[in-house]
Amino acid sequence: MMGWRCSCIVLVTLMLLPLMVYSGSIVKNLPGFDGELPFKLETGYIGVGEGAKVQMFYYFVESQRNPFVDPILLWFVGGPGCSALSAFFFENGPLTMEDDYSGILPKLKLNPYGWTHMLNMMYIDIPVGTGFSYSETQEGYYSSDTLWVDHTYSFLQKWILDHPKFSSNPFYIGGGSYSGFTTGPLVQKVYDGNIARHKPHINIKGYVLASPAVDLYQHVNDQVLYAYHMNLIPKELYESLEENCKGDYVNIDPNNTKCVSDYEAYSELVRYINEQQILEPLCITTPALNQIIRQPVQDDQEFSCRSYYHLLVDIWANDENVRKALRVREGTKGEFLRCNKTLAYTQTLTDVVEYYRNLTNANILALIYGSDLDMSIPQLGTQVWIKSFNMSTHDKWRAWFVEGQVAGFTEIYKMKEDHYLTYVALKGAGHVAQTFKPKEVYNMIKRWFSFSLI
């Protein structure tokens, strides 16, 4: 009798738990977009951490194809501290911003290459202090890689409980740049949670990485090799750097004068190179420039730098009507910044390669892609750590095409049983690829999620 009584208590608790989770609101109109949104957008908060005092703001866009069957992709933005709106408008969301800024409120238009054409897309303002996420206590604003993972796992559990109709959808986790440090550990945590029969079950099927940072030191060291390969520095300097610094450009001994001198020469040569995309101009944003951006663009004028368009997000998200439309809680956020660089954040995960190595033994799929013009996280370094897993080659290095033109190159490796890791190099793209080559990345994503060859 006692066992029956305890089971009832557990059952009642599970039945009541979804009622304690904020379900979010459906947003039908957004300032800057003409008419009703032709897709279903939900925004809201979910409390995580001790006492659920950390309130994570999220955007969930249902697939425009078959939302209760199509996969869910949780997509992280890098930084740390860059808002989900950065991806929503400039990477893979259903909307983008018009080029002809009128000087009032940026106009929005449909993104022809938005991934919501075939995926349910979830975005979170994480870590706390990013975007519209906030903490009810000052202590809650202190965050780290470890808390990023823990908070997201708690968020997903609560969100799934509150959205049972999506509980059986295939679930994928992905992101670009810095989020490579947190994606692998999070996928591992979700996968292990499923093995341990944690409830609710999250139907994890794989992960997607774009120009991922996985080793704090490796990508810095790889930048020197990349600069040499791309003829940004001469052969003589590169050979001297290798000899005098022994390939370590992070922990340079100040007493090693030859290494210090060589690295200073290297730094001066690449000083004015745009690491995000080496063929595009290097642009510095300042408060004065921010004011210039806020002026109307003339009919025959365009912003000279891609990064200038990013400032439009700040203008849009700081508008009172926008915040009301998104259901942002009043008084919880001061000035919105696309990337908040003042977070109280500690990097606790500096090398996560082993997480991805462990995941080759899990029953999941993996897509990792990089860009040939990205110097910030060179793809040659990504290829090195992938090849260190010693997986067998399923489909050797070859070109892949979009509309009859070479869009890049790909190689597919076999992991456990019938699960594969697909590596893709985007031609002519920067960091991260979909910002620079949206059509090509859209085709790549569409093919990969349909289990066809890239």
UniProtKB/TrEMBL annotation:
Q: Gene3D superfamilies, alphabetically? A: 3.40.50.12670, alpha/beta hydrolase
Pfam families linked:
Peptidase_S10 (PF00450)
Molecular function, one GO term:
serine-type carboxypeptidase activity
Sequence similarity? Belongs to the peptidase S10 family.
Q: Which UniProt keywords apply?
A: Carboxypeptidase, Hydrolase, Protease, Signal
Q: Which domain of life is it from?
A: Eukaryota
Signal sequence extent: 1-23
* InterPro entries per the UniProt record, alphabetical: AB_hydrolase_fold, Peptidase_S10
Q: What is this protein called?
A: Putative peptidase S10, serine carboxypeptidase, alpha/Beta hydrolase
Q: Which GO terms describe its biological process?
A: proteolysis; secondary metabolic process
Q: What does the organism's lineage look like at the top?
A: Eukaryota, Viridiplantae, Streptophyta, Embryophyta, Tracheophyta
This protein's record includes keyword Protease: yes
Give TM regions: none
